[in-house]
Amino acid sequence: MKKKSILIKEFHHKELVKISKTFGSQYGDLIESMILYFKKTGINPVEAINENPAAMVKVLDKRIVSFLKVQERDILKPLRNEVYQNSKEQKEQFSNLSKWVKDAIIKINDFDKNRTFQIINEVEKLEKKLIQQQKAFIEIAELIDTKNKSGIQETLKSLFK
Predict the structure, then answer these.
(1) Which pLDDT score, from 0 to 100, does residue 109 have?
(2) pLDDT of residue 62
(3) Do the Cβ atoms of 157 and 138 come closer than 8 Å?
(4) Which pLDDT score, from 0 to 100, does residue 36 have?
(5) N or C: which end of the chain has fewer CB within 10 A?
(6) 153, exposed or middle or buried, with CB in 10 Å at 0-12, 13-18, 19+?
(7) The pLDDT of residue 45
(8) pLDDT tens digits for 1-27?
């Protein structure tokens, strides 16, 4: 590694010595770290304002908190109140439904249950008839071709599986 020298004023050299002692770092290492810091952050030390970054962050933090409070006041709270009011109105509307509407809903549900039960029964009946027809076809095939030379019995059995 090649070593290079830089010329700085006496005052700045004394400051570099103080900073170096404070951070427990050698001059060269400290200067290298400064260079990397300025490169990484994009901060131009020539244009730097003598403000503490922590103070700047606090100001920014206050602005963000202020912005969030305004959003909460102007958007979130009214929206929450509107949702609550809408929910309350729906509950009131449902509780105010007349008795005959509630009874009609119950009757429709009962009708639907009965209709479903009837459909299931009809499907079961059709399934039993289908199984009987399958057995009849197989018996007819056995009568026609008792030794199953044509293979019709096995064909029918495989179709009905």
Answers:
(1) 95
(2) 87
(3) yes
(4) 92
(5) N
(6) buried
(7) 80
(8) 788 888 999 999 999 999 999 999 998
Give CA 92 to chain center in angstroms.
33
How do the domains of the chain map onto residue ranges?
Answer: 10-48, 50-96, 99-161
Q: Do 123 and 112 touch, CB atoms closer than 8 A? A: no
Report field, pTM of the whole predicted structure over 0.70: no
How far, in Å, CA of 61 to CA of 131, rounded? 78
Report the C-alpha gap between 64 and 143 in whole angstroms: 92
C-beta neighbour count of 31 within 10 angstroms: 15
Question: What are the tokens at 106?
Answer: 């119950």
3-state secondary structure 7-53: CCCHHHHHHHHHHHHHHCCCHHHHHHHHHHHHHHHCCCCCCCCCCCH
Terminal CA-CA length for the chain? 85
Letter for the amino acid at 142?
E
Q: What is the token pair recorded at 78?
A: 């009214």
Residues 27/16, Cβ–Cβ less than 8 Å: yes
Which residue carries 């103080």 as its tokens? Answer: 18
